[in-house]
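Q: Protein A?
A:
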Amino acid sequence: MEKATDWGKSAKAQLYERWPKTETGEPEAPALLCNCKSLDLADELKINMLEAYGIPCLRIYPGDGGFGKLILGMSGQGVDIYVPASLLEDAQTLSSAQAEEVSD
């Protein structure tokens, strides 16, 4: 839930605050969950579902994908979705459950 004091913060700042930290206070290493093609909004659905379960997600557009996302509204090379390494197994379980529901 967003607080009134969060208004105006960038999405990257909010992600940094939610990302798990190590004992030294450094952000935990990210782990690659998957590469999603952006054609059918599967990436947005997957990220929103993971975020709803409290798993923060980092999006990285490989190659020139960031430019394609900016100009065309989608990346031709898809998007790499990263999650905290400690939550990778949970994210994989949730993602596989989502894939089973879609294929039924």
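Q: Protein B?
A:
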Amino acid sequence: MVVIPKVRNTFCPKCKKHTEHKVEQAKARTMGTAHPQSWGKRAQTRHTAGYGNHGRYSRPPVGRWRLAGRKTSKKVDLRFTCKTCNKTHLCGTGWRAKKVEFK
């Protein structure tokens, strides 16, 4: 378990100086909002119609599908909100943790 402070003094790219930031974890989004399609549903079905498997079977067959390519934890997605300009930004790519707690 990783314990993170709720308020942190870090660099704000908008203010261009170190200010106090409120730290919060980003909420999980649905597949449609997180990864919107580049085309509509009708165009996608028209594209996938016809010959070929269209990349569906690009992975080799796996003996046990339950743990195939699965990680034990997700990456932490932290959002930093500046208290002076109220702008939100990310900081780095995050790290893997099973549980995050804010104190």
